[in-house]
């Protein structure tokens, strides 16, 4: 090959490489510009979504110092649930959220009226697993900083997840929801245990 052809080949190759480099630089510059421009909007969107989450669903700090329910903040330990006849021994934290249920079970701050109807939720594969063995007449003790209250189980059964409710006439009721796993035959349901203050039912 002549020197002239070699020179032309090198020139064409250099021009081709230069064009690719220019296109890559332009594409990179455009991408960075889009990211910079879109970032504030994306951040605002994320903050807006986060602001709509109820506090009980936020990642919170767990405290194992026993706290009065009336003074409790999300993540505070407010007591224990015990059922000797079926092996239940579980810490109860304020707020029915995934953080509380990672360490025990969570009291629903939104649904509970202390001294009347108390709603507590836990996972079936961990601390609330023993509730699958509970039967009518069994005693569950709810120990708090204020008192130890015995509840007698009056009913159990599966309900739609998150739909456990009590609408009867008893005044001091404990409603326990066991959240089933996705792999369970009862996926999409909660195992519900309803217990009434032993003083009421005798």
Would you mind describing this structure in some detail?
The protein is an alpha+beta fold and 202 residues long. A hairpin with a 3-residue loop joins strand 5 (139-144) and strand 6. The termini are far apart. The chain is 30% helix and 29% strand. It is elongated. Strands 1-2-3-4-7-8-6-5 form an 8-stranded mixed β-barrel. It has helices at 3-52, 98-103, 198-201, and strands at 77-83, 88-94, 105-107, 117-123, 139-144, 148-160, 173-179, 189-197.
Kindly list the characteristics that best describe this protein.
202 residues; alpha+beta; eight-stranded mixed barrel; 29% strand
Low-confidence stretches are: 43-53
Tally of DSSP β-strands: 8
Estimate the helix proportion, in percent.
25-40%
End-to-end Cα distance, whole Å, is: 108 Å
Strand content: 25-35%
Strand order of the largest sheet: 1-2-3-4-7-8-6-5
Compute the CA-based radius of gyration. Answer: 30 Å
Largest sheet features: 8 strands, mixed, barrel
Structural class: alpha+beta
Number of helices: 3
* Global morphology: elongated
Order of helices and strands: HEEHEEEEEEH
* Rounded average pLDDT: 84
